Amino acid sequence: MDQFADAVIRRRKAVMILFAVSAVLCALLFLTVEVKYNMAEYLPPDAQSTKALKLIAEEFPQALPNAGVTVRGVSLMEALAFKRELAGLEHVSEVLWLDDAADLRRPLEMNGRDVTESYYKDGNAHYSVTVAKGKEKEGIREIRALLGDRGSVTGEAAEIEFVQSATGTEVRNAMIILLPLILLILILSTTSWVEPLLFLAAIGMSVVINMGTNAFLGGVSFLTNAVTPILQLAVSLDYAIFLLHSFGKRRKSGVSVETAMREAVRESFSAVAASASTTLFGFMALLFMDFRIGADLGLSLAKGVAFSFVSVMVFLPALTMSVYKMIDKTHHRELIPSFSNVYNVLRRLAVPAVIFVAAVIVPCFLGQSRTDFMYGYQAAFDQMTGEDGDAEGEGRSTAMVLLVPKGYAAREELLGGELSALPHITSVMSYAKTVGTGIPPEFLDASITERFYSARFARLIIYTDTPQEGNDAFQTVEEITAAAERIYPEGVYSAGQSANLYDIKTIVRKDNSLTNLIAVISIFLVLLVTFKSATLPFLLLLTIEAAIWINLSIPYFTGTSINYIGYLVLNTVQLGATVDYAILLTVTYMRDRRVMPRREALHSALGSSFRSIIVSAVTLAAAGFTLAGTSSNPLIADIGMLLGRGTLLSMTTVLVFLPAMLAVFDKAIGKTTYKSRFYAEKTLGQEAGMQ
Fold it and tell me: Which of 242, 244, 246, 344 is the most exposed place for a label (fewest CB within 10 A)?
């Protein structure tokens, strides 16, 4: 470490130039990063809906309808003319309407009420529109420009456009709010006006490098692009604080600046590495999710932690050595008290904390496993845009496509009839129902038949009056699949927003248990290596898991739903990021316990680590609450709220519950920890009397 630190100090200009050049290049690379907005792209290759989407793309020239357009107050002929205008838009590839399902030359009553009212009711026309993939933003804006105030747009493409438009602005707003907050926290917790800028420079450099290197991943999700910079900044700021605090402490001892930095790097390296490792393994647990959004987010966050570690241990020492005179000139008194006697207050809460945790831990563990989840963001889209066609009774909310084996006209007709009889199905469009089984496909133009038949499959488009997700939507998916598989036992495929979300629901419930197990085992091993104790890893994990279970059970007990990604991410992020607080307190306690009795060791450990834990927790909680307050996307907002609330809960359990556990299991810790060398208490009777 001394040689490493010497090399950084001697070549500090070269180090700063290298990082500056890397940051500039990565900033340019960041502009080329493809951001993906369709969550269905992250379903595993063997998912049923993934296979269906692939087959649709291979077999049919028309893509799956992904938008619903409603025009109010139009006659039948006006509606037909508007369809032609819609179809003529640059980024619209197909428009389906009543004339595709019925003969408009006949009276509407002869076409069947269900079919007619699915497309035209009370002077309102409802169209199924296919917007070109990857052009949702442009296509939806074209449609809205054509519509004006005459109607509304719903569906997957409209939601993607909504997320695309909102995410970039909201991330920028979050940073505008968060950076001054963090700067204020750092100013209050340091003794120099310049130090906070050094912290932000070191972590900011690593954030830019991390986001730029996402270009080599082949694109990232909008979630990863929005959440990663904020979480990376919040969880790794501690590394920089720890190094510079150590540097300042060494300088007070009177050694030279070079010696102080060399010793600070040596002292900080193992502590920062242990802290980074727990966070890193927490994020890496997401890599094992079948739903690949976890790997997308986990890899970017883990990469960010690694870059932050390198930046703090290499770039920050070089930068600090170049501007240490400015640190001296801008010195100010401590603005936050030392809290050296905070144990006298917290110990009074120890017994109530243990009783509370013992009383709620089982109900909270059971409650968090029964939380209701949301899998899409239709509700947020409807709320933010006011374009809720379902609430107004303006037609179907979603479309689903079935692929069945081709060449069985009678079975196709039977399936269409059974599907039409299901409760929430408003219309079924197939060759058998639209054209009829009496006319062989060979007799018709290819422009008609290619909509329904490929070389191997027959395609049925099914419209429902359900939202995209929820009990009714998922039950309808199950009923459609069951009916199709009963008639086509050789196999069917289904796709569409409800079918995709149904697959996501099925997959993520399996992912949750796996990622939690991997995160807990990984961090347990890190704790085992760090403390060389058979007792401490269990106590630290219990402390943080109790906070996690309380946090995740709140939606269940309050009867609210949360987005599944927020739940999955929080399980690993809260564990990986906040177990550092428990590590800091316990490391300090174990060090002091070698020279002090139990009570004095707890007093000293809490006094010396309290401020660091508070600063770190408030920073991470501020990042979470900022995300929650600035994002209209429930996926990002839920992550923010759970993270902010969970961080404060973890901070509370570490400061109140963990000291009580350390006191209760003090003897067991001493006996089960390798070379614990606990202070031999010679006046146990007196100590017991004092307590």
Answer: 344
| CA dist., res. 8 & res. 261, Å (int) | 10
pLDDT of 259 over the 50 cut? yes
CA pair distance 502, 471, nearest whole angstrom: 10
Which contiguous run of DSSP H or E holds residue 519? helix 497-531
Q: Is 451 helix (H, G, I), strand (E, B) or coil?
A: coil
Q: Output 246-249 pairs: Cβ under 8 A, ≥24 positions apart.
A: 247/320, 248/191
- Per-residue model confidence as pLDDT tens digits over 652-679: 999 999 999 999 999 999 999 998 888 8
382 band by pLDDT with thresholds 50, 70 and 90: low
Q: What does the DSSP assignment read for 51-81?
A: HHHHHHHHH-SSPPP-EEEEE-S--HHHHHH
User: 496's torsion region: left (phi>0), alpha (psi -120 to 50) or beta?
Assistant: left
Of 172-186, 246-260, 501-515, which range is least confident?
501-515
**Residue 343 tokens, joined:** 């144990």
Non-local (6+) Cβ contacts of 506 within 8 A are none
CA torsion, ordered 601, 603, 608, 612, to nearest 10 deg = 120
CB atoms within 10 A of CB 450: 16
* Cβ–Cβ under 8 Å, residues 370 and 555: no
Angstrom distances, CA of residue 331 to CA of 78, 337, 338, 382: 74, 16, 17, 52
| Three-state secondary-structure class, residue 93 | strand
- pLDDT(470) > 50: yes
266 burial via Cβ count (<10 Å: 0-12, 13-18, 19+): middle
Residue 26 backbone dihedrals phi, psi, to 5 degrees: -70, -30
Query: Is the per-residue pLDDT at 624 higher than 70?
Result: yes
**Residue 109: per-residue pLDDT:** 64
Which domains are delineated in the chain? 1-32+190-333 (1.20.1640.10), 51-161 (3.30.70.240), 336-370+532-691 (1.20.1640.10), 393-502 (3.30.70.100)
* The pair of three-digit structure tokens given for residue 83, joined into one six-digit string: 């369809």
Nearest to 371 by CA among 508, 515, 560, 545: 560
> In the beta sheet, which residues pair with residue 524?
none
Q: How confident is the model at residue 426 (pLDDT cuts 50, 70, 90)?
A: confident
Residue 217: Cβ-neighbour burial (10 angstroms; 0-12, 13-18, 19+): middle
User: Of 646, 506, 503, which Cα lies nearest the Cα of 566?
Assistant: 646
Nearest to 560 by CA among 348, 379, 310, 396: 379
Please tell me whether residue 425 adopts helix, strand or coil conformation: strand
627: which residues sit within 8 A by CB, 6+ positions away?
174, 227, 230, 636, 637, 639, 640, 641, 643, 644
Residue count (the chain): 691
